[in-house]
Amino acid sequence: MGKNLYLPPDASPERRAAHAAYVAASDRLAKYGDVAALAAYRKAESEYGAAMLAEDKVRRPKSYPKEPSDEEMAARKAQWEREEREPTPLPWRVVHGLQWDDKEGLVTIEGANEDTVADNAQFYPHAIKAADAELIVTRVNAHDALVAALEACIENIKDSAQEIAENGGVKFDHDATWPEGSSIALAYAALALARGGK
Predict the structure, then answer these.
(1) Which region, left, alpha or beta, applies to residue 181 given φ > 0 means left and ψ of -120 to 50 means alpha?
(2) Alpha-carbon distance 93 to 85, whole Å?
(3) What are the DSSP E strand ranges found in the chain?
(4) C or N: which end of the chain has fewer Cβ atoms within 10 Å?
(5) Residue 11, C-beta contacts closer than 8 angstroms, at least 6 positions apart
(6) What is the rounded distance in angstroms from the CA atom of residue 43 to the CA atom of residue 73?
(7) pTM of the predicted model as reported, rounded to 2 decimal places
(8) Helix, strand, or coil here: 49?
(9) Exposure class string for 105-116: b at 16+ Cβ within 10 A, else e
């Protein structure tokens, strides 16, 4: 088993030592086959793998990312903690994907940064963070009131426009296209978004 393990001629002393320990542990496992021999074999196998990796990092340093400094790790931790406190960036979208163990299919809510807000995975579903839960409840609870307010604003703007038109002797066109960027055009667009694009 271990004796057939490849050892290049230019292997480092550390790798050679780990290889020798691996071969010895392999021989002992083949000879005794007890729990202690198996534990020693697994340990030697792990140490040989670590020695191979350390040697490869020396030979091909560009293939391995640089280990972050303590300052970089502290900055990353602060960023992770900040992201955990803040809601996932908007807009969110619903992504449908098949899942082999779920006949209904996997449905995921993703943020603008493609982070998962929540999903319906059958096993180990993604837990929603508190900031996103607060955002969902706040926006959903305000939805109907905002829609009603937009509808009222649109009617008020149209009534005012009609009054101005009639006072100027102009017939008011209810089907007219409102100028892009105008208050009523923005209100119509927001109302359509609130109604799911309808």
Answers:
(1) left
(2) 20
(3) 93-99, 102-110, 116-119
(4) C
(5) 19, 55
(6) 30
(7) 0.48
(8) helix
(9) ebebbbbeeeeb
